C-alpha cells in the first residue's frame, strides 16, 4: 500500500515572520490529521528556524501523547510535519560558491528534497542528466528525492507528455537502475499548470500517472506498484479531493496553496480521507 504524501513547495517566498506564522498555523490546522505524510520545503535560509519550530511543535505533541497513554510506543508519537528543501548540490563540500550540500540539509533536519523542478530546469538550465546525478547523490546521502517531471504546454499539445515524462525518469533508471526509485517520490507537474490556475483535470492527471507507472512497470512491477507519484500544478482545496480519488495519484506537490495554513491543511486532509 502506498502512503500518500502532500508536500508544500514554498519556492522563493518567506520571511522570519511568515515562516513562524505558517508553521504555527500548520501545526494547529493539522492537529489530528493522520494517514498522510505532510512535508514542507521552505527556502533554505529558513530551515534552521523551521527545524526549531517543528521540534517544539513535535515535542508538545509527544508530551500530549505521553500523558494520554503512558506507553513507550507513544513516546515516539509523531513528527507530524516533515522538513524538506527545494534543491541540492552534487557535492558535500568544496569550492562551489552558493551551493548547499546534502550533509547541510541533513544537519538541519531536512529529509525530502525537491529536484528537477521545472523552474530550475528552465531558469538554471538543469538537464535530465544533471537532475539524475542529484537524485543519485541524495540517495547516497540517505535523503528522499522528490523528482519533478512534466511537460510544457507545447509538448502537451503535440501529444508528447508521456514521452517527456518517460525520458525524464529514464535519466535515473538508465544510470542507477529502476530500484533506485524505491523510497523516492515522483512529482508529475505539467508546466502549463504551475501557478496558472489551469490545473489538469483529475482524469487527465490519472491517465498520465497510470502511464508513468506503466512505464516504470516495464522495468519492475514491484517498484512501479510502490512508488509514490504526486500531482502538482494549481492544486487547491477545491480540486484536491478529485485528484486523490484517482488510484494512481498518491498525493500532491503544492505551490501557492501551501503558503496558507488552512488551504494546505485542507489539501492534506483531503488526501488522508481519500486514501484511508
Ligand atoms: P502551484 O501549486 O502554485 O501551481 O505550484 C506547483 C508547483 O510548482 C509545486 O512544486
Structure write-up:
This protein is α/β, with parallel strands linked by helices. The protein has helices at 16-29, 47-68, 72-75, 102-107, 118-123, 128-140, 153-157, 161-176, 202-217, 221-226, 237-244, 261-275; strands spanning 5-9, 37-41, 81-85, 112-115, 144-149, 185-188, 228-232, 251-254. It has one domain: Aldolase class I (TIM Barrel, Alpha-Beta Barrel). The protein is 47% helix and 14% strand. An 8-stranded parallel barrel has the order 1-2-3-4-5-6-7-8, surrounded by 6 helices. Helix 11 links the parallel strand 7 (228-232) and strand 8 (251-254). It is globular, with a radius of gyration of 18 Å. Residues 69-79 have low confidence and may be disordered. The structure holds 1,3-dihydroxyacetonephosphate. Residues 9, 117, 189, 194-195, 232-235, 253-257 line the site of 1,3-dihydroxyacetonephosphate (13P).
In short:
The chain has 276 residues and is α/β, with parallel strands linked by helices.
Topology:
Blueprint: E1 5-9, H1 16-29, E2 37-41, H2 47-68, H3 72-75, E3 81-85, H4 102-107, E4 112-115, H5 118-123, H6 128-140, E5 144-149, H7 153-157, H8 161-176, E6 185-188, H9 202-217, H10 221-226, E7 228-232, H11 237-244, E8 251-254, H12 261-275
Helix pairs in contact: 1-2, 1-12, 6-8, 8-9, 9-11, 11-12
The structure holds 1,3-dihydroxyacetonephosphate.
1,3-dihydroxyacetonephosphate (13P) binds at residues 9, 117, 189, 194-195, 232-235, 253-257.
Residue ranges: pLDDT <50 for 5 or more in a row?
69-79
Instruction: Please estimate the helix content.
Output: 40-55%
CATH fold label: TIM Barrel
The string of secondary-structure elements, in order, is: EHEHHEHEHHEHHEHHEHEH
How does the helix and strand content classify structurally?
Answer: alpha/beta
Average pLDDT figure = 94
Largest sheet: 8 strands, parallel, barrel
Number of helices: 12
% residues in beta strands? 5-15%
Query: What is the second-level CATH architecture?
Result: Alpha-Beta Barrel
Principal-axis shape: globular
Strand order of the largest sheet: 1-2-3-4-5-6-7-8
Bound molecules: 1,3-dihydroxyacetonephosphate
> What is the number of independent domains?
1
The top level CATH class name: Alpha Beta
CATH homology-level superfamily: Aldolase class I
SS elements, strand count: 8
Distance from N terminus to C terminus (CA atoms, Å) equals 10 Å
Amino acid at each position: 500500500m502506498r502512503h500518500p504524501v502532500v508536500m508544500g513547495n514554498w519556492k522563493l517566498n518567506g520571511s522570519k515572520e511568515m515562516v513562524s506564522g505558517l508553521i504555527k498555523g500548520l501545526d494547529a490546522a493539522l492537529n489530528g490529521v493522520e494517514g498522510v505524510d505532510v512535508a514542507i520545503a521552505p527556502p533554505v535560509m529558513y530551515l534552521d528556524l523551521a527545524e526549531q519550530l517543528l521540534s517544539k511543535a513535535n515535542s508538545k505533541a509527544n508530551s500530549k501523547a505521553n500523558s494520554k497513554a503512558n506507553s513507550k510506543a507513544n513516546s515516539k508519537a509523531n513528527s507530524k510535519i516533515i522538513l524538506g528543501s527545494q534543491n541540492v548540490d552534487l557535492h558535500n563540500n568544496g569550492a562551489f560558491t552558493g551551493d548547499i550540500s546534502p550533509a547541510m540539509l541533513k544537519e538541519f533536519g531536512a529529509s525530502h528534497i525537491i529536484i528537477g523542478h521545472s523552474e530550475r530546469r528552465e531558469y538554471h538550465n538543469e538537464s535530465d542528466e544533471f537532475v539524475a546525478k542529484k537524485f543519485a547523490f541524495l540517495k547516497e546521502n540517505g535523503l528522499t528525492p522528490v523528482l519533478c517531471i512534466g511537460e510544457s504546454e507545447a509538448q502537451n499539445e503535440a501529444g508528447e507528455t508521456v514521452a517527456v515524462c518517460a525520458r525524464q525518469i529514464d535519466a535515473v533508471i538508465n544510470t542507477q537502475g529502476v530500484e533506485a526509485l524505491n523510497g523516492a517520490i515522483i512529482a508529475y507537474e505539467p508546466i502549463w499548470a504551475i501557478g496558472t490556475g489551469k490545473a489538469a483535470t483529475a482524469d487527465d492527471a490519472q491517465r498520465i500517472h497510470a502511464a508513468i507507472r506503466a512505464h516504470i512497470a516495464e522495468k519492475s512491477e514491484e517498484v512501479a506498484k510502490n512508488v509514490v507519484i504526486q500531482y502538482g500544478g494549481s492544486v487547491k482545496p477545491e480540486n484536491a479531493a478529485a485528484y486523490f480519488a484517482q488510484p494512481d495519484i498518491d498525493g500532491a506537490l503544492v505551490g501557492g496553496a501551501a503558503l496558507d495554513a488552512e488551504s494546505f491543511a485542507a489539501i492534506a486532509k483531503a488526501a488522508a480521507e481519500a486514501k484511508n
